[in-house]
Amino acid sequence: MNVTEKLAPIRKGLLEYVILKIVAGDKVYVADMLKLLGPTEFATQEGTLYPLLSKLRREELVDYEWQESEAGPPRKYYKLTQKGRTQLSTLNDYWKDLNRTLADFGN
Amino acid sequence: MQKVVSISLNGNSYQLEEPGFDQLRAYLESAEARLKDSPDRAEVMADLEQAISEKCRGTLGPHKTVVNTTEIERIISEMGPVESPDEKAAGAGTADGGAASPPPSFGTQPRKRLYKIREGAMWGGVCNGVAAYIGADVTWVRVGAVLLTLFTGVMIFVYIAMIVIVPYADTAEDRAAAFGVPFNTEDIIGRAKKNFEESNQRWHREWRRQQRHWNRQFRHMNEQIRMSAQSFAPNLSPAARGIMAVFLPIAAIIGALVFVAWILAMVSLVTQHSIFGWGLPHGVPLWVGVIALVAIYFAISAPLKAVRNGGHQAAGHHPGWRTVHAIVWMCAVALLLWAAYNFLPGIRELVDNLVWAANLTASNFSETMVARNWN
Questions:
Q1: Among the four residues A2, A50, B66, B142, which has the most C-beta atoms within 10 Å?
Q2: What is the ipTM of this complex?
Q3: What is the CA radius of gyration of chain B?
C-alpha cells in the first residue's frame, strides 16, 4: 500500500473543505471546479462532486444561481452562504490546529 | 452499420449508438441506486444528466449527429463513479463526527453503565466512574463524597460496597459505556498521561495531609476517652437511668434495623436495579434511585436521631450512654448482618467480596507503608 493510497480517505474527507474554499473565492461552475482540482491531489469527477454539492446545499452551506451560457442551457453557479462562510472559518481554524499538532509531534 | 437510440438528457435529445446507450443507461441506473437513500437524489440525477448532456454536445459537430460508443465510454469514465456523501459518512463511521453529520440522537448513543475508571483515580476509581456516569466534573463528585462521609459516615460503606460491586472499565467498550460516548485510543492515552502525573503528585500531597489528620484525630480521641472515663460518675436519678437503660437499647436496635435494611436496599438497587424486587420507574436512572434512597434513609433516621438526642439531653449528656448506644447499635447491626449473611445468599456473596477487598486493601496499604518507611 503506497502513500497515496494510504491517505486516500483523508483526501476524500478533506474534499468538502476544499470545495468550500474554492466556492468562497468566486461564483463557480462545476466544470471550473474540476479544472481547478484536476492538477492537484484532490482531482475528482462529476460523480463525486455533484452529490457533494447537493449535500452542501441541503446543509445551506452553499447556494447556486442559474446563469445563461453562450453555448447550451443555463448553468448552475455555486457560491458560499453566510453559514458556509462561518463553517469555512471554523474549518480553517481547525485545520491550522491540526497542522500545529502534526508539527509538534516527533520534535 | 450501427443501430442508434434516441434519448433525452435533461430536456435535450441525443442520438447514441446502441452499445453506448446500454452503458450509459447502466451508469445512470447504478448512480440512481447509489443515491436511493439520499434526499438529493432527484437533484443530483438532474445535475449528472446535465453534465453528460454537455459532454455529448461537445462531441457533436455540423456533420456529426450521433454520439458513438467510444465517446460514451470516455464520458462515463470522466464522470466517475457516483458516491453519495451521506453514504460515505455512514460507512466511514467516526471519520467525520464533525459539523457535517447530524448530532447523534439518543437512540443511537451507547447505553451508559456505571464503571470504576482507573485513569486519574484517587482510590478505587469510584468517584471517577460516577463522574463519568452522571457527566459531572470528578472534583465535585469527590467533594460530595467527602462531605457525605463527614456528615453521615455511611458514605464510606457505600464507597466500599461500590469498590466491590462496580466493575472496572478495562476495555475500550467498557469505557465507551462508562462515558456514554464513543471512545478512541488516543483519548484514552491522552487522558491517562495527563492524569497520571497529576494524580501521582496529588496522591503524595494527600497522603501527608491524611497522616497529619489522623495524628490529630488520634490525640483528640485519647482526650475524649480520658474525659469520658472521668465523667462517668452516676449523677442521674435511678428512675431516669432505668428509662434510659430500656429506651436507649431499643432506639439503638431500631436504628440498626433501619440501617441494615437501608444497606440491603442499596445493595439490591445497585446490583439488581431494583429494591427487593421493586424496580425503578421506567426512565429513572440508577443514580437518582441511589440519591433517593440516601434521602429516604435520612428522612427515616433523622427522627430516630432526634429522639435519641432528646434522651441524651434528659440524661444530662452523659457520654456513657452514647457508648452504650453505640455498642448496642453495633451489636444489632452485626447480628442482623450475620442473619442476612446466613439466610440471604446474595448478601453472603457480597460480604465474601467485601472481605476479599478489605484484605487486598490492607495488604496494599501495608506495602505502601513499608515502601514509604524505607524511602
A1: A50
A2: 0.80
A3: 37
Instruction: Work out the end-to-end distance of chain A between its first and last CA atoms, rounded to an integer number of angstroms.
Output: 26
Chain A and chain B share a number of CB contacts under 8 A equal to: 75
List residues of chain A with CB under 8 Å from any CB of chain B. Answer: 9, 12-13, 16, 30-31, 44-48, 50-55, 57-59, 71-73, 76, 87, 90
pLDDT in tens, chain B (375 residues): 778 888 888 778 888 888 888 888 888 888 888 888 888 888 888 888 888 888 888 888 888 888 888 888 888 888 888 887 765 444 333 333 333 333 333 434 445 677 777 777 777 788 888 887 777 777 778 888 877 777 666 677 777 778 777 777 776 667 667 776 555 555 556 666 666 666 677 777 777 777 787 777 777 777 776 666 555 444 556 666 677 777 777 878 888 888 888 887 877 777 667 776 677 777 777 777 888 888 888 888 777 777 777 776 666 666 677 777 788 888 888 888 788 778 777 667 766 776 777 777 777 767 666 666 555
Instruction: Supply the pTM of this predicted model.
Output: 0.40
Separation CA B176–CA B112 (nearest Å): 8
Chain A residues within 8 A of B38 when measuring between CB atoms:
51, 54-55
By C-alpha distance, the chain A residue nearest B31 is: A47
Instruction: Classify the phi-psi angles of B174: left when phi > 0, otherwise alpha if psi is within -120 to 50, otherwise beta.
Output: alpha
Q: Does A9 contact B38 at a Cβ distance shorter than 8 Å?
A: no
Residue of B nearest to A10 (CA): B95
Of B48, B54, B96, the CB nearest to A50: B48
Angle, vertex CA B147, rays to CA B363 and CA B287, nearest 5? 85
Helix, strand, coil shares of chain B as percentages rounded to 5? 70, 5, 20
Is B99 within 8 Å of A90 when comparing Cβ atoms?
A: yes
List chain A residues with CB under 8 Å of B51. 30, 46, 50
Smallest CA–CA distance, residue A83 to chain B, in Å, is 12
